[in-house]
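Running log. JK asked me to keep both predictions on one page so they can be read side by side. First protein, sequence followed by its tokens:
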Amino acid sequence: MSYYAATATPFAALPPLTGAVQADICVIGAGYTGLGAALELAQRGVSVIVLEAGRVGSQASGLNGGQVHTGQRRDQVWLEKTVGLDDAMALWRLAQDARAHLHATVADHAIACDLKPGMIHARHRPGGEAEDAAHIEHMAGRYGYDALSLIGRHALANDLGTDVYHGGLLDRDGGHLHALNLALGLARAAMAAGAVIHERSRALSWTRQGGKIVVFTAHGRVTCDQLILSGDGSLNHMAGPAQARVMPINNFILTTEPLGDLADQIIASDAAVADSRFVVNYFRKTSDGRLLFGGGENYRPGFPGDIAGFVRRHMLKVYPRLKDVKIDHAWGGTLGITINRVPFVGEVAPGVRVASGYSGQGVMLAPYVGKLLADAALGEGAGVELLSRLPTPPFPGGRLLRWPLTVAGLSWYAMRDRL
């Protein structure tokens, strides 16, 4: 069981779909994106039904590291070179709107998800201070973003309680939260506004009948005017071109037992931390004084037999002082990535829209992208159109070879972290 499931605000099981029902819009997936869409639609008087294969937040939205990163997954310089300055600036504004939307949603609906400020990016190799300083100057000068500051090696060691990093930068507008409680809070808010959510109702297929879209589950069907697909790494053939552009990978996390007085010596600032490795180590303290640590991933179906041992090896490289600390929870989750690490968002068929492949940036972006999908369904498509211009080419190799080719490439980059 994950730490999140063990500490979540109680949430009663919701009935699966049985029989034939109708709605204006059907949403597949009760994660951040789908729930963000359902909340926006219901608040605007639209009838919406959400189909979830498991429980609310049971996939990436309720299993991730809970880190709130600002901006897009790729930095603004990359975006400027890739999509041009105008779109890059629009994407920054969209990301800032997403951050504001997250904070407003948590406040407006009293979602108890332990949302806290502060995000540290730590360099795992010497050098890089000049690049960090240039990034800070660029963001302040071109985008007016002044929440970034350099952290020297000694100051970072004093804050984190480890000397394995070589400095970094602090993003004061980043943060962290209880991932599952955010999803459950979004679900409660959506249902209070009138949305209907069916758990254990895996969508199997969809088709068009008489000008309508019909979505089939094992025991029922939803007839609707429009469809939103938000399954991220779990999307299948129903998502059309998204399937070739989004690859599922598995990531793993543990939490220690409560650290007692030792908690005061680790991440004194109470910020979230992510390092500069290709396979990122990311960690933070929980509200009850544990260390939550994510490290390691794999690129094939299935999880390691000993997840706690798998992640603990990574944790001890950062915090060898925790070698005798008990591990209370360890779990894995599946997320979607794209080649360029930007989300795949757009209309894949008339009236059918998809968002997937957040590549680790979903905590902050996904609820807002759900809102944008809802806006597009109601004829206000500027946000989705902007995101759809992000380049998300298909993975190379076609249906048969894309998996081994991608795994080989990702494994090579992961090996570089160990050199």
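And the second, directly underneath as requested:
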Amino acid sequence: SIQVRSDGDLQVDGLFPAGATARAHADKELLIQTGNAGGFTFRLNGKPAKALGRTGQFLTNVKITPENYKDFLEGPSSGQPGG
């Protein structure tokens, strides 16, 4: 199951089959809870985000804000070797 709170308001809540999509918009923060971190894929500002965890991993209170959202994006980040 997936829950997404946008600026404190519950916007996404439920079980989603593979390939299903949902949208949420936030000005200050997104708070994500998922029962299958490896199966949860998402985009931030139209860019692909990296996996939050492994398949079957339960995560609560993953907080994404304007200050930290780039940490969740796929691709090279400073200090990490490319490849």
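Observation for JK regarding the second prediction: The CA atoms of residues 1 and 15 lie 4 Å apart.
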